[in-house]
Structure formats: structure tokens, C-alpha cells
Amino acid sequence: MMGEFVFNLEACARPNIVALQPYRCARDDYKDDGSNTLLDANENSYGPSLSTDISVDHENNGDTLRLAGLNRYPDPHQIELKQLLCDLRQSAGSQATLKPENLFVGVGSDEAIDGLIRCFCIPGVDKILVCPPTYGMYTVAAQVNDVEVVKVPLEVEGESASFDIQPAKIQQMIGGDPRIKLVYVCSPGNPTGKLVDPARLKALLEYSWNGVVILDEAYIDFAGHDKSLAHWVNDYPNLVVMQTLSKAFGMAGIRLGFAFAPSGIARLLNNLKAPYNVSSLTSALAIQAVSKAGLAVMRSHRELIVSQRERLVQELSKIPRVGRFLGGYDANFLLVEMLDGPKSLGGQPDNRTAKVVYSQLAEAKGIVVRYRGNELGCTGCLRITVGTEHETTKLLQKLEEVFQETP
Ligand SMILES: Cc1ncc(COP(=O)(O)O)c(C=O)c1O
């Protein structure tokens, strides 16, 4: 990394957040180790009002699913879960060790997306930068916080459009506007399904500015083995890497997202969050998912998804009115063009066709995909999630039917 680096956390984060004294509870002083009578938090000592008692611990393959104690507030710090997440993303090639103090855990990555804006952006004054086409929540969270959004598109122009970030253009923009505090980069991108080239990200990170680069790796486990750059938070003072259990781990329902960050940034995020943001049920299930047995399940499901993704690419390509796949093949979805005529006759990507296919698939065939034709560089595109073998078979069959019925 460069010697002269202007990033200064105290000067970059909002002064009220830097000065914030986090909420403390009695259990920060006296741990809940089972030996104390707990009369500090106005809980109900008689237990949860559940007619079916799910709140008992379960043994499973040597791991314990800890569901007891639902009448108690959850652990605000989640050190056990954080350590498992560090072990998961510790890279063999990295000198520095990821530690629980490098982590924020929250209610999906959506909480981290919002928390970072609240941490760094003064409402009505500061800005974030996004690279469209990209995940819509960055802009929604900015708008909720009255924070302006500046855009530097992915490289979407021309036949050889890479759908990758353009570091020189981003640098130009952040260099010219000190009110830009955060740059959100999605890798693999949504809706592009494309892993950002690490060399481009490096070029962006080696640029000296007083702001933070946020790398959203929600889909990283579909991109291949050990592709996460989470360990880079030890190399760059202004990098945050977000991940989630909602995708490869198949646990969107528990709402568990996390962000790796240099410890100073992680501390601010942890100071600003609500103390009990992660429920006991969520953390118990998350711990199972990232323990040895859970990881084995995730990996086997991922193999199945990757093989269906390959099948979908092959089979969709044979359909005359399906065009190019845009972006990449690094996530659990494909971004694919619908054409106004057969490709052999020069059919072109077409939003009208994509909308008809989208609504016919849903209304007549019971299959819901995502219309993305209005996103920058995505004319005529649908984003299709890779499902099970059976779902893929059904999708391919119904898509052919829709094309037969669509003029
Ligand atoms: C790129 C990206 N980031 C984050 C999320 C949200 O993840 P979570 O469920 O953890 O809030 C999504 C969900 O679709 C996503 O596509």
C-alpha cells in the first residue's frame, strides 16, 4: 500500500458517530454465564409464551443448536459467531488474521448498507457513489437518509462491454467531490453476475481519498473457491467487505448479514447499531450454518446450483429468441437478453419482448423471474435465478412455450 494515504477515520465519519457513547447493559459488566440470577433487564423469568416449546437445545452431528433462553435478550456482541465467520474467510495466503473486532453482524447486509451511510454521511450534505447497473438498496438507503447518489456506471458500452468497474472514472469523481464519502461496489454484481477484477479494485483502493470503499460480496460463494477479498480489510484502512447468509447459505429467512472492516470502522458500526439487533434464534442458526456440518451442506448445495447454472447457460443458448448472457457467470443467477426475433435472423434485444416473456411466465406459467430491461446496459434483459434441477427443467419448458405463443 502507498505510504501517503489521506484516509482519516475520525475526519471521515460523522462527528456525532465518532463521539457516540454506545448503549451499555449490566451484562457488559457481569457476563450471563448461567451462574447469576438475572434481574437486570426487565425480562420474564417464567420463560417464553410458546405453546410448543421450541426453546430447548438440540444436538445435531456433534453441534449444539442453542435455542434455550429465549426469554433473555441475545448477546449484543456475538463473538462466537464472529469468530466462525473470521475462520470461514481467513485466507491461507494472508499474513494478517481476521478477528472478531473486524466484524459487524446485523439484520441482513441491508443493515450494514444503511449503517455505513448513517456512520459516514451527514444527511443533506454528503453523497455516496454507486456503479449501475447495481443492487437497488444502496440508493434506497441513501434516499432514506437524505444522502445524494452519484453514479459512475460499470463499463457497459460496446460489443466488448466488460460490466466491470471503471476505477479511473471513479477516482476522477471522488477526487473532484470531497462530499462523496462511500463507494459501493458489488462483486459478483447484481444484476450482472460478474466478479469484479481484483486488479481494478486494487487500483481503486490504492487511490488516496478520505472515503470508504464498500465491496458487497453477497454472492461470493458462487464465484468459485476462496474468491472473497474479505482479508483485504487488513491491507486497506478504508475497505469494508459485506457478506450475507441469504444466498449460498440459503438462510434469507433468518436475516443475517455481516461486514468485515478495519477495527476502527467496525467499532463505529457496532457503536451505532441497536444493542440486540441479531436475535438468539438467528445467531443459533447462523452458528450452525457456518460450523463444519453446515458448511458441508452449503458446499453441496452450491455444487448443485453451479451445475444447474451451467445447464441453464447451455440450454437457454439453444432457444432462438434468447440472446447474449451479459455480465458473468459468477453468481446464482443469469442476466440474459430476450430478442425481438430469432438470433439467426438478426434479432435484437428488446424490452417489449422481455416484458411479455416476464409477465407470461408469471401469469400463464407460474414462474417468476426479474425484468431488468430498464437497468443501464441491460436492454431486453431478464435476470433468472438458478433453482433446483426440477425448477430449471420447468423454466426451460415454459420459456419455450411462451416464445411459441408470443409473436
Ligand atoms: C448485491 C446484494 N447485496 C445484498 C443483498 C441483501 O442481502 P441480505 O438478505 O443479507 O439483506 C442482496 C439481496 O438480494 C443483494 O443482491
Shape: globular
The largest beta-sheet arranges its strands as 3-9-8-7-6-4-5
Rg measurement, Å: 23 Å
Termini Cα gap: 57 Å
Protein name: histidinol-phosphate transaminase
GO molecular function, one term: pyridoxal phosphate binding
Cofactor: pyridoxal 5'-phosphate
Domain Aminotransferase class I/classII large: 38-399
How would you describe this structure to a colleague?
Helix content is about 35%, strand content about 15%. The protein is built from 13 helices and 13 strands. The protein has helices at about 10, 15-20, 25-30, 80-90, 110-120, 135-145, 165-175, 200-205, 265-270, 280-290, 290-315, 350-365, 390-405, and strands spanning about 60, 65, 105, 125-130, 150, 180-185, 210-215, 240-245, 255-260, 320-325, 335-340, 370, 380-385. A hairpin with a 2-residue loop joins strand 1 and strand 2 (about 65). The chain is globular and about 75 Å long. The model has no long low-confidence stretch (mean pLDDT about 95). The structure holds pyridoxal-5'-phosphate. Pyridoxal-5'-phosphate (PLP) binds near residues 110 and 135.
